[in-house]
Amino acid sequence: MRDNMGKQVTLQPITQENESECIRLQPREDQLTLVASNADSLIHATKEVTSKPHGIYAGNEMVGFILFDNEIYTDGYYWILRCMIDGKHQGQGYGKRAIQEVIYMLQERSDCRQIRVSHVPHNVAANALYKHCGFQETGELEDNGDIILGYQVRG
Ligand SMILES: CC(C)(COP(=O)(O)OP(=O)(O)OC[C@H]1O[C@@H](n2cnc3c(N)ncnc32)[C@H](O)[C@@H]1OP(=O)(O)O)[C@@H](O)C(=O)NCCC(=O)NCCS
């Protein structure tokens, strides 16, 4: 998939080689409370056996981070647990491309019926991004009040 500038947008696993590049990425200052730091997310990822951390690349440059289930989670869904685009790379379609790429990969799995994501209620950008990609609010909330959205892959 390509962004507006023609750079190819790909998801590549986080390894020892690109881990420090990932940790350096940060959202905008006013977004710091909306998402955990990438360092935190990488620690979290080691405890979540179904999920795998990936860098979001525009060409050869890592512009964002996404953590999503690579196998079905115990509740029967595939979750996108974290997604961020570095502040200086936002607004260029990378978030949208990354989510579309995850949908593309997961819809190949015969056991994937619904992809889920949640966000804090006032995260307007995340809500618009996910709806833009075909997610709908499920009407369910996480225990902490976060809004849950789902993308229906098959019935
Ligand atoms: C949410 C986030 C990942 C969007 O990434 P992005 O690359 O800037 O988004 P895109 O350029 O792909 O935008 C895609 C769509 O998302 C929506 N969107 C993105 N930023 C938005 C904003 N600031 N306000 C409202 N809608 C926004 C729009 O619908 C946009 O489509 P459009 O430009 O055609 O209107 C990015 O803002 C971010 O990293 N935020 C901080 C971390 C975060 O909140 N993560 C989500 C936690 S669940």
Summarize the structure.
With 155 residues, the protein is α+β, with helices and mostly antiparallel strands. Helices cover 25% and strands 31% of the residues.
Ligand catalogue: coenzyme A
Strand tally is 7
Percentage of residues in strands: 25-35%
Q: What strand order characterises the main sheet?
A: 1-2-3-4-5-7-6
Helical amount: 10-25%
**Span of the ends, CA to CA:** 26 Å
Poorly predicted runs are none
H-E string: EHHEEEHEHEE
If you consult CATH, what is the topology of the domain at 9-112?
Aminopeptidase
By CATH, the superfamily of the domain at 9-112 comes out as Gcn5-related N-acetyltransferase (GNAT)
Tell me the structural class. Answer: alpha+beta
The CATH class designation of the domain at 9-112 is: Alpha Beta
> Would you identify the CATH architecture of the domain at 9-112?
3-Layer(aba) Sandwich
Mean pLDDT: 95
| Cα gyration radius (Å) | 15 Å
Number of separate helices: 4
Domain N-acetyltransferase: 9-154
GO molecular function, one term: acyltransferase activity, transferring groups other than amino-acyl groups
Protein name: GNAT family N-acetyltransferase
InterPro entries: Acyl_CoA_acyltransferase, GNAT_dom, N-acetyltransferase
